[in-house]
Amino acid sequence: MSAAFPAERTAILTGAASPRGIGRATAHYLAERGWSIGIIDLDEAAAQAVAAEIAEQHGVAAAGAGANVADEAQVRAAFDALEPQLPPLVALVNLAGVSSPDPYLEVTPDEWNRVIAINLNGVHYATRRAAETMTANGVGRIVSMSSISAQRGGGTFSKTAYSAAKAGVIGLTRSVARELGRLGVTVNAIAPGPIDTDIMGGTLTEERKAAMSADGVLPRIGSPRDIAAGVAYLISEDAGYVTGQTLNIDGGTYMH
Fold first, then answer.
1. From which residue to which does any coiled coil extend (predicted)?
2. Of 14, 30, 39, 168, whose Cβ has the fewest other Cβ atoms within 10 Å?
């Protein structure tokens, strides 16, 4: 049986310190809605700076820690550092990731391993550590970033290594949802379509935005706020009957 959803609660976000990323926008969006925030990023100073900015602007508790999500010991240490500083951990948002535009016939073993290590193993390490706290408390929400690239087989800026890792995130999400549901924890994924962030290879021109939106049914590409709103729903108390799902926020690019 699930425990009560605490009024004072924390969301930890991985990869949330880059200036124009989905993570930072999501951290602000959640803080506006009363969530305390923990940020884990490769750049510890940036994680702490964004946390300080969030605490100042939104009046919530916030803290930052550094970790390479591909290193399980670093991930566990970051959670261990953040949890005592913040209200109970209720939500994890797995946002840390890297793009990989290398064509399949040019993918080196090092590139393949780098992309899987960050985009899939990193999600597992953070999920596993967060789930230990959540199941002990009897309540939790986990949301991980997949991609329409996983569902369409690429066709985006990134290619096969990225698609394989992001498909792995969907499989991980469903399986962990099945195992943790009776322990009070929901686990879902979001599959963004083209979003206006720097991960697409730099700031986008209007021409490139128009070309990228052509696949969808809406006349624009997505913004980080579009993803943040989806995260806010999936980690909310109201989403307690939603688990094992992949929510596409993609302007209709992939309908399934």
1. none
2. 168
Pairing mode of beta strands 246-249, 185-192: parallel
CA 73, 74, 76, 77 torsion-angle sign: positive
Q: Which residues are catalytic?
A: 162
What are the φ/ψ torsions at residue 210 (nearest 5 degrees)? -65, -40
Residue 86 has pLDDT above 80, yes or no: yes
* Domains observed in the chain: 10-249 (3.40.50.720)
Count of alpha carbons within 13 angstroms of residue 24, beta-carbon side? 16
Bridge pairing between strands 140-145 and 36-41: unpaired
- Cα distances from 79 to residues 68, 229, 230, in angstroms, run 12, 24, 24
Q: What is the dihedral sign for C-alpha 168, 151, 164, 222?
A: negative
- CB contact burial 16-52 (16+ within 10 A = b; e otherwise): bbbeebbbbbbbbbbbeeebbbbbbbbebebbbebbe
Give the DSSP H or E segment for 46: helix 44-58
Per-position DSSP letters for 85-97, written without gaps between them? GSS-EEEEEE---
